[in-house]
Amino acid sequence: MKSSAILLLAAMGVLTAQVQAVNELPDKQAPLPSVPKNPDQSYLTPRPLSAIPEGAFGDKVRLGYQLFVNTQQLRDKYVGNELNCANCHMDAGRKANASPLWGAYFAYPAYRKKDDKVNTFEERVQGCFNYSMNGKAPAAGSPELIALSAYAYWLGMSGLMDAANLDGPVPELSDAELVKGAKREDFPLPDTLAKATTVDQRANLPGRGYPEIPKPELAFSPERGKAVYTAHCQACHGADGQGQAIAGVYSLPPLWGPKSYNWGAGMHRVNTAAFFIYENMPFAKSIQLTNQQAWDVAAYINSHERPQDPRNKGDVKQAQEKYHNDNDYYGVEVDGKVLGTASYPVFPKKS
């Protein structure tokens, strides 16, 4: 345990410089850079759910977990599609290299081109509701956002404490502190952690985000991607990409169409989807595809119509020029149709 902790904490310093060197993409969809993957890397491991304490703070953490894995309980209130947070953040937000929740918590507050301002962690989660969930963001300070922040904080802090061999419960924070995120000099930390790591090191924990993969040798192709989809994805997500549901409850998510993420979600970008797919799909069989196959199938999935970008003010071309200048099909003609012109509604009600 101790040697793994030393490797983890040491790697944080090495990777910080690498991450800061990553160039941002040229449009307002640019995500925070992921941390380069090291095959021999030790990753932060949050404590098991059974370690969540009793009491008011533990109740917030448990509620955050429940909302994260079953976000559909917020359908029609804040969610407008058939997805759950855990569909894109694997293992209930715990899995390294699957955009783990613990990595995101320590990366905010941070400037985002998408909003052209510094976002707190709470504001970042609000964006997920608006775009990935095709819904309506809960108000700042709402019980849902506090709970999701508490869960993210508990995952990250418990993992850091164990990596540094610090026993005891995760320190409780006020609601006002929880929703800010941890990338700040005044964030309350145990002295041992504060002395062992810097803010930037904690913001670039190994395993954060989806590891980038090289651009393919051939330009990505929806046509080739269809063959990859049929061979590797169709069994779970269906020939029509609409996932699988039992009694109206989706066990496997829809990938396009009215029940999936909208044109403003980060996953609509071919590169983001390719990074996620290569590392994490097919489910329970990750890293089965080549780089080329991952890019091609991501292009196939994201060259279908889906819910409208909420930022569209009625002009697809204008929205494309402002928000969609790289690695996506919004405003692009596919099979004789310009994607975005026949998009599905934002935040449709199920009932």
UniProtKB/TrEMBL annotation:
Q: Could you tell me which InterPro entries the record lists for this protein? A: Cyt_c-like_dom, Cyt_c-like_dom_sf, Cytochrome_c-type_DH
Position of the signal peptide: 1-21
Q: Which residues form the Cytochrome c domain?
A: 220-305
- Keyword Lipid metabolism present in the record's keywords: the answer is no
Molecular function terms from GO: electron transfer activity; heme binding; metal ion binding
Its keywords, alphabetically, are:
Heme, Iron, Metal-binding, Signal
Q: Which residues form a coiled coil?
A: none
Where are its TM segments located? none
Q: What is this protein called?
A: Cytochrome C
